[in-house]
């Protein structure tokens, strides 16, 4: 019987679908990956149980709201406060977070050492929480979180013991102190327009050796385009998406694939960039 996994999102793209189906085919597994367009986390979990779905990938707006609907979550999820992967084992639902691993891998690919440096994170949702967790794992010196909703930023700051505030507070900071700028907001994606004034104000003050990481899953976003025009090193959200998906695929196929076979990252990467080129 075919095992079904799905991306649960508001206005989902086909990027994850392309990657995971490529992996399943390469592994020779009777698995299929589909998409579910909904903002109702409870409805999604009901469908998972009713249809005995194997796994979910979660993105906006489900990463936090799904937590109370699960039977258990990993230690990483507990610390981050967000879930991006759900595994269904005979009706027992477990939550995991592979986002932070994807972020770490994407940062490591740059070859830049961030230990002891300062980072600016834009946003305060599940992706931002995974980003801050990742930065602390990498022993980044200090982090400032800025978000349109100041209360959400302050709560994230309290949870991770980092400084936080609203976008307006950036005017009082020395942006040149930040070696790394991470955008974890949907600004510049298919979900949200705008952000140009904010991005311009940040990039205007960064150091020439700063790294700009846009989590929006497009190869060339407005932020990345502006950063590259300044000669800055950039990281596409597609790199994070790829690496977190590899970890996710391992969870989806656990106990179903030949243990001697590794997750085919090359096939997933090819499928990802092929699909991304269509948009």
Question: How is this structure best summarized?
Answer:
With 279 residues, the protein is of the alpha/beta class. Helices cover 39% and strands 21% of the residues. Strands 2-1-3-5-6-4 form a six-stranded mixed beta sheet, with helices on both faces.
Would you mind describing this structure in some detail?
The model has no long low-confidence stretch (mean pLDDT 93). The chain is built from 10 helices and 12 strands. The radius of gyration is 18 Å and the shape is globular. It has a 6-stranded mixed sheet with strand order 2-1-3-5-6-4, with helices on both faces. The chain has a 6-stranded parallel sheet with strand order 9-8-7-10-11-12, with helices on both faces. The chain starts with a strand and ends with a helix. It is α/β, with parallel strands linked by helices.
Q: Could you give the topology of this structure?
A:
Elements lengths: L2 E7 L5 H13 L3 E7 L3 H10 L4 E4 L13 E2 L1 H6 L4 E5 L2 E5 L2 H11 L8 E5 L3 H12 L4 E6 L2 H11 L2 E4 L11 E6 L12 H8 L7 E4 L7 H8 L3 E3 L1 H17 L11 H12 L3
Parallel strand pairs: 1-2, 1-3, 4-6, 7-8, 7-10, 8-9, 10-11, 11-12
Antiparallel strand pairs: 3-5, 5-6
Helix pairs in contact: 1-9, 1-10, 4-5, 4-9, 7-8, 9-10
